[in-house]
Amino acid sequence: MPELPEVETVRRGLAPWLEGATIESVTLNRPNLRFPFPDGLKNALTGQSVTHVGRRAKYLLIGLSGGATLLSHLGMTGSWRFAEHPIDKPPRYYEPGTEPKHDHMIWALTHPAHGRSHLIYADPRRFGFVDLYDDLSTSPYLQGLGPEPLGNEFSASQLAAAFAGKRTPIKAALLDQRVVAGLGNIYVAEALHRAHILPTVLAGSLVTSTGRPKKALEDLVFAVREVLTAAIEVGGSTIRDFRSVEGAGYFQHNFAVYDREGDPCPTPMCKGIVQRIVQSGRSTFYCPKCQKAP
């Protein structure tokens, strides 16, 4: 599934072209994605202007002039793409590897600065979905989410409060969206490696007896921010199907440990070999030499 950096990359690609645009018409080429399209979606979108393009965790949030918000989850292979943009590249309606049959929703847009364009939602596997809310706070997908890992509320103290006494492995604890929103399997593995923490240690072991964060937990918060920021700067890529709005993506070659079983650990002076284990049914990659228990 696309993780936070991928969704943020899509948001940043959409915003300059979509904010301020008016949706002239909407074409739905099928009745559903993972779930049926919301009733009356075409009429609800047509004639609306886009006020902002936001993100919460792994969800895109497209605000409309009438007050409603469209929530979009990309699933495994979903993508939003402009037919005509970016303007400094030749127009390309279909990205490599896609077919017209996968274009499930198309918006015809008019923008005061950029003119007419078409925004396409394509999704070969149809694991993505969209929903529409007059009041975004009622969305069950957003209720109970923890703080954003790049926001001010995310801190070692916040994690210490969540992890105190917890006997869950640290990797699983970080994947709990109630603790921190938007982290996924790949970037958790990368952050734990950067912070030199074994993925199997108990989350509670990173907290002192008085409830304060140990240095390892402070290092982990810093590592999470670094890994996510670096991924966003590069453009994001978690799976081969990912595309940003401009067809970019792919930086698996920059991963330190993810999907690198058997490779030498890239940490300077470390002679470890990246290993793979399975935790909660998901692959975990780590270096047994430089990743330690606190």
TrEMBL record:
HAMAP family: Fapy_DNA_glycosyl (MF_00103). Keywords: DNA damage, DNA repair, DNA-binding, Glycosidase, Hydrolase, Lyase, Metal-binding, Multifunctional enzyme, Zinc, Zinc-finger. DNA binds at residues 102, 125, 166. One of its GO terms (biological process) is base-excision repair. It catalyses: 2'-deoxyribonucleotide-(2'-deoxyribose 5'-phosphate)-2'-deoxyribonucleotide-DNA = a 3'-end 2'-deoxyribonucleotide-(2,3-dehydro-2,3-deoxyribose 5'-phosphate)-DNA + a 5'-end 5'-phospho-2'-deoxyribonucleoside-DNA + H(+); Hydrolysis of DNA containing ring-opened 7-methylguanine residues, releasing 2,6-diamino-4-hydroxy-5-(N-methyl)formamidopyrimidine. Residues 256-292 form the FPG-type domain. The keyword DNA-binding applies. Its cofactor is Zn(2+). Involved in base excision repair of DNA damaged by oxidation or by mutagenic agents. Acts as DNA glycosylase that recognizes and removes damaged bases. Has a preference for oxidized purines, such as 7,8-dihydro-8-oxoguanine (8-oxoG). Has AP (apurinic/apyrimidinic) lyase activity and introduces nicks in the DNA strand. Cleaves the DNA backbone by beta-delta elimination to generate a single-strand break at the site of the removed base with both 3'- and 5'-phosphates. Binds 1 zinc ion per subunit. PROSITE patterns: FPG_CAT, ZF_FPG_1, ZF_FPG_2. SMART domains: Fapy_DNA_glyco (SM00898), H2TH (SM01232). The active site is at residues 2-3, 58, 282. The keyword Metal-binding applies. It holds the Pfam family H2TH. This is Formamidopyrimidine-DNA glycosylase. Its EC number is 3.2.2.23, 4.2.99.18. The lineage of its organism: Bacteria, Pseudomonadati, Pseudomonadota, Alphaproteobacteria, Hyphomicrobiales. One of its GO terms (molecular function) is damaged DNA binding. It comes from Devosia subaequoris. Residues 2-128 form the Formamidopyrimidine-DNA glycosylase catalytic domain. Monomer. It comes from the Bacteria. PANTHER family: FORMAMIDOPYRIMIDINE-DNA GLYCOSYLASE (PTHR22993). InterPro entries: DNA_glyclase_Znf_dom_DNA_BS, FPG_cat, FPG_Glyclase, FPG_N, H2TH_FPG, Ribosomal_uS13-like_H2TH, Znf_DNA_glyclase/AP_lyase, Znf_FPG/IleRS. Belongs to the FPG family.
